[in-house]
Amino acid sequence: MKADPRQKEVARRFRKLTGAFLALVFTGISAWSAQAETRTFTDIAGRKVEFSLPVERVLIGEARQMSVVAALKGKEAFDRVVGWRNDLLLKDADTYAAYLKVFPHIAGLPQFGYIPSGTFDLEAAIALRPDILTLNLEAYRPAVENGLIQKAEAAGIAVVVLDFRIDADRNTEPSIALLGDIFGAEKKASEFIAYRRAQLARVEDTLAKAKPEKPLVFIERAPGISGDIECCRTFGAVNFGEMIERAGGENLGSQYLGEKFGSLNPELLVAANPDHVVVTGSNWAQESDIHRFVNVGPSADMAEARKSLAALMDRPAFRNLQAVSRGHVHAIWHQFYGTPFDFVAIQKFAAWFHPDLFPDLDANATFREMYERFMPFAYEPGYFISLDTVIDHDGRQ
Question: Where residue 362 falls among pLDDT bands split at 50, 70, 90?
Answer without folding.
Answer: very high
